[in-house]
Write a structure and sequence with these properties.
- This protein is α+β, with helices and mostly antiparallel strands.
- The chain has a domain at 40-70.
- Helices cover 16% and strands 20% of the residues.
- The strands form two sheets. A two-stranded antiparallel sheet has the order 1-2. The chain has a two-stranded antiparallel ribbon with strand order 3-4.
- It is rod-shaped.
């Protein structure tokens, strides 16, 4: 005779079932470990100077002072 459904064994006294995987907890841990994104860009001026600066609509070259196109 065959059973229609499969039964699972109950844990014995003192045994523990494995904890269910919490996907949101693993995502939170990954977010805590990774550094925050940097809001800087690499700009190249007409004078030949390359520099990193905050991402904005108006950035001036620290070498010659001309404004960079957005």
């Amino acid at each position: 005779m065959q059973r229609a459904t499969q039964t699972t064994r109950r844990p014995r006294r003192g045994e523990r079932r494995p904890a269910p995987v919490d996907v949101r907890a693993s995502e939170r841990l990954r977010a805590q470990r990774t550094p925050a994104p940097e809001d800087q860009a690499l700009y190249r001026c007409q004078c030949g100077y390359a520099f990193k600066a905050e991402v904005t609509t108006s950035v001036g070259c620290p070498h010659c002072g001309t404004s960079q196109a957005w």
